[in-house]
Specification:
Blueprint: H1 2-31, E1 41-48, H2 57-66, E2 72-79, E3 82-89, E4 92-99, E5 104-111, H3 113-123, H4 132-161, H5 166-188
Antiparallel strand pairs: 1-5, 2-3, 3-4, 4-5
Length: 191
């Protein structure tokens, strides 16, 4: 039984490594912005708007997505002056503004590069998004979370089976629990 638990522990640790590394790097990037050159590349373009799409921002966004500006549709706003919306995917943002009656719309595209993509993936959460690739990412994160819980449980089981190291392991486990709860509490305190 111990060998099976050890193999599960090792396999789950290897599977979770890339996710933990990605979240670690993006957390350091968010905590120490000055360490990273994260200036996005910004470009602007004018795109034609068909008469059918000029009445409905969602149909125009769909047309843009079919033309290659794929992502999540966000911040849709429409009034008498026209409409604006954002098409967002990890690392790339398309801000679209359309003035009513105009045959064209302005699209401002910001590409944040690799670190910007990691930052966006770090913040991506939940299922039932417009793009199925985002749901796949959410499923992988959920499976990794379950794997990490299993990794911890198998680690505690293997530690407990080694009688010689119970005292030292108990001390480290208590310290880790204290630090983890302290950090969790510290992130919830408003300055």
């Amino acid at each position: 039984m111990y060998t099976v638990i050890r193999n599960i522990h090792l396999f789950l640790g290897l599977l979770c490594f890339s996710f933990l590394l990605m979240y670690s790097v993006s957390a350091v990037q968010m905590s120490h912005v000055e360490w990273f050159s994260n200036n996005p590349t910004v470009s602007e373009q004018t795109v034609a708007v068909s008469p059918a799409d000029s009445q409905n921002p969602r149909s125009f966004a769909h047309a843009l997505m079919q033309a290659g500006m794929w992502g999540e549709l966000q911040n849709v706003a429409q009034d008498d002056a026209g409409f604006r919306f954002r098409i967002l995917r990890a690392g790339t943002t398309h801000d679209v503004e359309y003035a009513a009656g105009s045959p064209t719309a302005q699209v401002k595209t910001s590409v944040a590069g690799f670190m910007g993509m990691l930052n966006r993936l770090h913040h991506t959460a939940g299922f039932y998004r417009e793009r199925c690739i985002t749901d796949w990412w959410a499923a992988l994160v959920a499976l990794t979370s379950l794997a990490l819980l299993t990794l911890g449980a198998t680690g505690v089981y293997m530690w407990f089976r080694l009688y010689k190291e119970r005292v030292l392991g108990g001390i480290f486990l208590s310290i880790g629990l204290f630090v983890g709860l302290g950090l969790l509490f510290a992130t919830r305190i408003q300055p």
